[in-house]
Amino acid sequence: MYLFRNKFVALLLVITPKSFWPMKKLSSLFSLFLLIPLFAVASEVGDRTIPAEVAQLADSLKQKLAPDKRVALFDVDYSFSGKNVMLRGVTTSAEAKTALLDGLAKKGYAVMDCLQVLPDEAGLEGKTYGIVNVSVCNLRVAPDFSSEMMTQGLMGMPVRVLQRDGWYRIQTPDNYIAWVHRVGIHPVTREELTAWNNAEKIVVTSHYGFVYSQPSQASQTVSDVAAGNRLKWEGTKGAFYKVAYPDGRQGYISKSISMPEKKWRATLKQDAASIIATAHSMMGIPYLWAGTSSKGVDCSGFMRTVLFMHDIIIPRDASQQAYVGEHIDIAPDFSNLQPGDLIFFGRKATPERKERVVHVGMYIGNKRFIHSQGDVRVNSFSPDDELFDEYNLGRLLFATRVLPYINKEALLNTTETNPFYSM
User: Of 120, 127, 140, 211, whose CB has the highest number of CB atoms within 10 Å?
Assistant: First the structure.
């Protein structure tokens, strides 16, 4: 561990009660240092103004190794006293931390290193993975129910657990990082996750339904389920599959709303016509900020949900989805678009500011597109169409073609190739 020079150590000696001073061994004094709220003391006396050379170093590392805070963390707090600096915070990049420590040392700084690399193996007691344990779990910016929702996870989805602070900070298969209430996931070890991933599953194919305590819809419900949920297959009884949850609960789900995963894969189609049909099946489902399930969707969550129902995993947000697949500059007559292309909207670039993507939909042919805006709906780019959408035509930016690139780009994959599902 890097240590501060004399100023902070002297301060600790001054504030230490005299009754503790008569210690026989230096090791006892050092143990005392560990018990005293050292970090709080340092932060009170330290200057949080970041020198330009340090800010430049940190910014360059963040841009290189953790440029998108939605999928990588490099949250560092600094307290300075001359050339002494204490680092606190968290990062998901060990490489970024090492580079920061090396860079500070080269600039002559003595560093107290309290910067934590996630996942927090010790704090999580080895359970650095988890499985979503409710039909749809809400993931938030901060560990609080009043915090803004960022995205959602679906039952049976494997996640990486990074940190525990009452809630769990997790990373989803599309690499999104957010906080989830402890009820939302079942923490597991890597070995337990592998066992879950390898187990035969039942996939929920209906937009909504229930699991029952007995093979009868008249029995007590165990929970609700939503499209894309996965449960462990334990057997069959009449018109029901017996299933198990990640936490071991058991129940029965109707065959009419679910299917064994292998059979589901065998019948699965990933062509534009099938995907557009699925998109149409969600017509009228209400818009929900950060929604990523058949219960409610935002614009990018709608694309994410529709494609996931065809076992395709894409990035979470519109501004991330815009940069996978093949970029297409849209022809004035829309003749170079194909059904199934993703189309993006937002602020067009000017000499003063960059282009900004804020909305996404799916092209369905004949100058029409389906998207979530208020609810899931179809609109048109043609002024002659009764579904004409002048507002979105005015902010149309470009399109991307993703279907030919599934499993050919790192961020376009399936549950058979995504690292979270293949551990």
Answer: 211
The conformational region for residue 150 under phi > 0 = left, psi -120 to 50 = alpha, else beta, is: alpha
Strand partners, 235: 242
Identity of the residue numbered 391:
Y
- Tell the residue number behind the tokens 């006293």, with chain if given: 81
> Residue 311: which H helix or E strand, with range?
none
Q: Return the CATH number of the domain spanning residue range 129-197.
A: 2.30.30.40
Strand partners, 237: 240
pLDDT tens profile 303-352: 999 999 999 999 999 999 999 999 999 999 999 999 999 999 999 999 99
Pairing type for strands 84-91 and 110-117 reads: parallel
Measured N-to-C along each axis, helices 38-45 and 6-15 cross at an angle, to the nearest 10 degrees, of: 120
Are the C-beta atoms of 79 and 33 separated by less than 8 Å?
A: no
Contact 224, 257 (CB under 8 A): no
Give catalytic residues, as residue numbers. 299, 359, 371
CA angle centred on 125, ends 123 and 131, rounded to 5°? 100
d(CA 104, CA 238): 67
- Please work out, in degrees rounded to the nearest 5, the angle formed at the alpha carbon of residue 261 by the alpha carbons of 294 and 171: 60
Given the DSSP bridges, would you call strands 185-188 and 258-260 parallel, antiparallel or unpaired? unpaired
CA separation for the pair 338, 332 (Å, rounded): 14
**CA 351 from centroid of its chain's CA atoms:** 33
Class of domain 199-267: mainly beta
Helix or strand run (H / E) with residue 324: none
Ranges in the chain annotated CATH 2.30.30.40: 129-197, 199-267
The pLDDT tens digits of the residues spanning 188-218 come to: 999 999 999 999 999 999 999 999 999 999 9
CATH of 272-405, one of 3.40.50.1100, 3.40.50.2000, 3.90.1720.10, 1.10.540.10: 3.90.1720.10
C-beta of residue 345 within 8 angstroms of C-beta of residue 396: yes
Average pLDDT rounded to a whole number, residues 93-116? 97
In order, the DSSP letters of 136-197 are EEEEESSSSTTSPEEEEEETT-EEEEEEEESEEEEE-TT--EEEE-GGGEEEE-HHHHHHHH
The continuous run of DSSP H or E covering 236 comes out as: strand 230-237
